[in-house]
């Protein structure tokens, strides 16, 4: 399999006309069975008009060949690994759906998926799980609807809003707090970030978290938290509870 050496040279389709209704963007870090479960659930519950965009961080050739066998696929088999922010941004660049859904492979769709909240032009980001904070230090899970941060297990937005919002900070190599940082970017653009508990999504074991040694994941999470604070710590106008 020929791998992509220079992903920055791939075409940027952000401003292209919509070709699908939904693009599901995945950064693959391993565990083909999880990706295949997600793919199967999309077939079962989403119907027509969708694509699966997989940014394939290299694990091995067998893993990549299994990905390539899936249908409705935009497959980017990388030669060198990329971090969380850069990987998600690459997937967004290649997506052609009216709505782009950043989704983790731990997620399974278990019923008809309707993202009607995005019919409201004031809503910029919708997910299934979210958090609120009074101060930017202490975060608690929230059923919303309005939240400070939509969790990155599932984040849906109109692709046409990317020019207004921007993308993920590529300096986030690890996933934790990168989703909250992006949520603040959405609200900084004047849009709401909400959760919809009715979305038919099931969350399975997060393999990357479980497979990362505790000390390492704590250090990576700490670095990301400080990056989030550098970006938004003084923006008290963006904290919903302030």
Task: Give a quick precis of the structure.
The chain has 242 residues and is of the alpha/beta class.
Largest sheet: 7 strands, mixed
N→C terminal distance: 52 Å
What is the fourth-level CATH superfamily? Spore Coat Polysaccharide Biosynthesis Protein SpsA, Chain A
Strand content: 15-25%
Q: What would the average pLDDT be, to the nearest integer?
A: 95
Using the coordinates shown, work out and report the CATH topology: Spore Coat Polysaccharide Biosynthesis Protein SpsA, Chain A
Report the radius of gyration as a whole number of Å: 17 Å
Describe it for me?
With 242 residues, the protein is of the alpha/beta class. It has a single domain (7-238), classed as Spore Coat Polysaccharide Biosynthesis Protein SpsA, Chain A, CATH 3.90.550. It contains 7 helices and 12 strands. The protein has helices at 32-45, 61-68, 84-94, 162-165, 178-188, 207-211, 214-232; strands at 20-28, 50-56, 73-77, 97-103, 107-109, 123-127, 130-132, 140-142, 149-150, 154-158, 192-195, 201-203. It has a 7-stranded mixed β-sheet, with helices on both faces. Strands 8-7-9 form a 3-stranded antiparallel β-sheet. A two-stranded antiparallel ribbon has the order 5-12. Strand 7 (130-132) and strand 8 form a beta hairpin. Helix 5 packs parallel to helix 7. The chain starts with 19 loop residues before the first strand and ends in a 10-residue tail after the last helix. The relative contact order is 0.17. The model has no long low-confidence stretch (mean pLDDT 95).
